[in-house]
Amino acid sequence: MGFWDKVIANSSGSPESIICKTCGTTYRGTIDKRFPYATCGSCLEKADYNAKKDGDNEMSNMIQWEFKRRANQW
Question: Angle CA(73)–CA(41)–CA(33) in degrees, nearest 5?
Answer without folding.
Answer: 55
